[in-house]
Each structure stands twice: as C-alpha cells, then as structure tokens.
Design brief:
Length: about 250
C-alpha cells in the first residue's frame, strides 16, 4: 500500500513530545529487552547497531554493557530526538555511543557490527524487508540480528473496554493506511529465513500488568497518534479525546 504524499509512514508523534512517550516505553520494555540481549550474548567489546533508536535510551543501556572497548551506533529519522539523545548521553558521561540521522529502509551502513537490533521499527515500514537487508549488510559474518516487534491483535484488556477496542482499531487502521503492518510479529521468523539467516529463534513476550507505567501506554500512544488518525480521517478530535479520557480513567 502506498503512503499518501506528505504523510510519513511513522504514525507516532516525533520531537520532544514523542520523546517523553519513549522514556516510558523504554522503562516498560527494559527488563525483557535486556534479558533478550543477555540471551544473545551481548558482552564487553562488542559493536552494536540500534536501528530506529528514538531517544537513545536503549543505546545508552547497551553502551554500558559493551563498555569503553565497545561501540554503539543508533540511527533514526527524527533529528530532534537524536539531538536530545546526544545531549543526554554526554550528560551521563557515555562516550562510546554515536547517533546518526538515517532512514533505515535506504541507508547502507558499513559492515562493522557484531549485533544489529531494532525494536518496534519494522511494524511501521512499508518495506521492512529492505530495512532488514540493510541490517544484515551492517553485521559482520557470524554476527546477530535481533528484532523486537509487535502483534497488536494479541493486545487485550479484561473486562472489555470499548475505548481500548477503539484505540486498537484506530492504531491498526492508521498503521495499515501508512503502509505498515501492526501485526508483523508472527511474520518475523519467515522474513529472517527468507533473508538467508541461520539459527532463527523466536520468543513471545506477553506482558500482563495490573499496575505500573505499562498501564499508561494505551493513553500515551493514543495521544501521540492523534495527528495521524486525524489526517487519515479515521476519527474526530472529539472521539480521540473521549478514547484518551476513558483510557486514563482505567489507570
């Protein structure tokens, strides 16, 4: 599906406002992402590419793990977030991380990395296979590709919430309209096999939470996709405000 002129494929708000949502998301995902990186053997001295790095929170986590003898490069299409990431990394004294402005569907990066990682990126791309091929080209022989992505159809709430159902519909429909796949998760093993990778493994993570910041994510995400939803004429501002209010009441 083609993306309409003037409409970017990434539906979630960028810049400073989008950066704040990513802080919450990183804290929510931190335990499972770090467990995954430990599972693939991330270690001192490694060189890591983090594709679609956003505000760089995970890049800084990885930089601490690989240590001064290692190196991390984070790429993203949002220059504002990258500027924030550079400032925050410098303030934290993390010197082994670099942030680059790049569209990962087209950018080719030198083959120098032991690991290439992407979290919640391929779901938004009209051509995720191109981004995957570029990740593979960036990894040295024997290196590792790590993908974390979503299956929105598996997201549920009980008791049933009309506002939550509407949020999921608006999110999914807008991602599809922009050319992405909100349920890309189950496709990933076949994509990796088709790309010629070996030893493909898959782990399903289904968080279930009664409290904590994870419960903020539906309302935060609805707020941050509002502009794209309105541009695609899937809802009015009044309906979006209703969905956000109802989601916030459930916190």
């Amino acid at each position: 599906m083609a993306t309409a002129p003037g409409r970017h494929h990434y539906i979630i708000r960028g810049g400073v406002a989008g950066r704040e949502r990513l802080r919450v998301l990183n804290r929510v995902m931190r335990p499972t992402t770090l467990a995954l990186l430990q599972r693939i053997g991330l270690a001192l001295g490694m060189r890591v590419l983090d594709v679609g790095c956003g505000g760089g929170d995970l890049c800084c986590e990885i930089a601490r793990i690989v240590g001064p003898s290692g190196r991390v490069v984070g790429t993203d299409i949002d220059g504002v977030k990258l500027d924030l990431a550079r400032s925050e990394a410098a303030a934290a004294g993390i010197g082994n991380v670099e942030f680059r402005l790049a569209d990962n569907q087209t950018a080719e990066i030198e083959r120098e990395f032991d690991v290439a990682h992407a979290r919640f990126l391929l779901t938004h791309l009209p051509d995720p296979e191109s981004a995957l091929r570029n990740m593979i080209r960036a990894v040295k022989p024997g290196g590792t590709i790590v993908l974390e992505d979503i299956d929105v159809s598996g997201w549920f709430v009980y008791p049933d919430s009309p506002a939550h159902r509407r949020f999921l519909a608006l999110y999914s429909n807008t991602v599809r309209r922009r050319g992405g796949d909100p349920d890309i998760g189950p496709r990933l093993p076949l994509m990796l096999n088709a790309a010629g990778l070996e030893n493909v493994q898959m782990n399903v993570v289904q968080p279930a939470h009664f409290s904590g910041e994870v419960k903020l994510m539906p309302a935060l995400t609805m707020e941050n996709i509002a502009e794209a939803v309105l541009e695609e004429n899937f809802a009015t501002q009044e309906e979006i405000d209703w969905v956000v209010a109802k989601l916030c009441q459930a916190l």
